[in-house]
Write a structure and sequence with these properties.
There is one protein chain. By secondary structure, this protein is an all-alpha fold. It has 8 helices and no strands. α1 packs antiparallel against α2 and α5 packs antiparallel against α6. The longest helix has 17 residues. The chain is globular.
Length: 132
């Protein structure tokens, strides 16, 4: 709690600075404590996916991306979009989503249970091999 108060106080002090690097640093510190706007929709999209409502999940996940997510949230959204496209027989779109994941995090790997899935596991491995 003290650290949060310190950072908020620091943000207040830095807010008065007019240099661009100081403005950016202030914004970066504030963003640590803010929930990305698309986060609720991401959570709803994952829940819809887990419930088997893939069409609803597609809309919610895309909406979350459109509303704004941090990098971690973007990775999750694109991963679930890839799963849905693979499960629906749309391999090209599945590959596209996995490419987006790997662009955001080249070291990304699926969880063991996900990697072993017979539909999207091989697709992910193929896309990762393409990335180098």
């Amino acid at each position: 709690m003290r650290a949060m108060l310190f950072l908020l106080a620091l943000c207040g002090l830095l807010a008065g600075c007019e240099t661009e690097p100081m403005k950016q640093m202030t914004q970066d510190i504030k963003s640590i404590f803010e929930t990305p706007k698309g986060e609720p929709e991401l959570t709803a999209g994952i829940r819809s996916y887990e419930d088997g409502n893939y069409n609803v999940a597609l809309r919610q996940l895309q909406s979350a991306l459109n509303d704004g997510l941090n990098t971690f949230g973007q990775i999750k959204a694109h991963k679930y979009l890839a799963f849905i496209h693979c499960a629906s027989g749309r391999e090209a779109r599945c590959r596209e989503e996995f490419r987006k994941v790997l662009t955001l995090d080249p070291d990304f790997n699926l969880e063991p249970a996900e990697a072993g899935h017979p539909t999207w596991g091989p697709v992910f491995r193929s896309v990762k091999a393409e990335q180098g």
